[in-house]
Structures are given as C-alpha cells and as structure tokens.
Amino acid sequence: MENKFTHIFLEPYSGQYILKRRTFSETSHGNLTEDVTILVNVYALVGVWRKKIQIGWISLGESSSTEDEQDHWHEMIQGLGTTVSKWHHLMIS
C-alpha cells in the first residue's frame, strides 16, 4: 500500500519542518506578506526501495505558478485570519 503523507516545509530560508500527516489543512502562525512564495512539491514513494518520485508542484505567492494561485494568495492575505480553502491543479514536473 502506498504511503500517502503530506510533507510541508516553510522556505526559502529556514527549511523548517511543519507537518507530516495524511490530511492537509494548514494554518500559518506568522506574517505572510505579498513578497513570500510557498512552493508545494508532491511526491510518490514507489517500488521496494520506496524511491521518491516528484509527480507535481504548485507555488503560491509572489511567484505563483498560475493566475489562479495568485488570486488564492491575495484572498489568503486579505482574509485576516479566516480560512480560505481552494483546490489547485498540480504543475507536471
């Protein structure tokens, strides 16, 4: 059975590990500004040796991968503590 966990890292500078669990529902406890970019990479673990293969990615923030992600980022910044949930398509690696 495939191991499906979410790994979230806060970057670019700290590389701080935030979460590892089967569901994704993150809340930021810091100041997110318009000049920040969050990069989300999605990997699959395959084979006997559990090789990590990147299957896609998205970026949210200043360097968003699409206009939809940019709009979502602005909604989160303007949300002032409210949850802004939205599904996104992955960019193929």
TrEMBL record:
Q: Which organism is it from?
A: Anisakis simplex (Herring worm)
This chain's protein is named Ovule protein
**A Gene Ontology MF term for this entry?**
phospholipid binding
